[in-house]
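User: Can you predict the 3D structure for this chain?
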Amino acid sequence: MLVAAACCPCPPLLVPEVAAGAAGELEGLRAACMDAVGVLAAARPDVLVVVGPAERAGQGPHPQGAEGSFRGFGVDLAVRLGPAGGAEPDPDERELPMSLAVGAWLLERAEWNGAPVEALGVEETLAGERCAEAGREIAARAPRVALLVMGDGSARRTQKAPGYYDERAAGFDAAAARALGAADTAALAALDAELALDLQVAGRACWQAAAGAAADADLRGALLYNEAPYGVGYFVATWS
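Assistant: Here is the predicted structure, written as structure tokens:
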């Protein structure tokens, strides 16, 4: 059963070493993410599952100890999933997708030493009902399950955004932020997958997986952050 969730964005710029001189611009976002991870720790889960967008199916599950890195951004920084002392990584294990590497970095920064950690990449184009099914399967993993849900809003909020400006982006993000902040599983399930893809919303599938996991959990939500630096919607929310 799902007992808590934290929804955080997953831009590599969240990592100060990647952001370099611009690191200070996202300090408020990092602080909100740390507060959200703290809600997960307070829930005392039996297992923590990190979910994040992936480009294709088959991205996981990744066991505790799986590795990721930010070398693709010119930074010699590696991360491992979950607390120290876990099993040594399997040499045949795929490297964590970038969204999950950012999640692993958040847990390292928060010095997570609670429940065992696993991770799952969710294909960004996955249909809503299949996302919900994946979430229900995660929630059934243990009596007390927590979720760290990685995912960004639209990358088309301004003319300087990565996907350029789309007038529909602000409305979509506003609806998503309201639903995340209220733990409104019905509203999250109703998000339009096709529109999300057009607006370059990386988090839609993961949010709908979280909605599936929380469908019968009666959780209350709180929205900790809702901004669009660099023209991309970033939200931080907690469910508990």
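The chain has one domain: 2-239. The mean pLDDT is 94.
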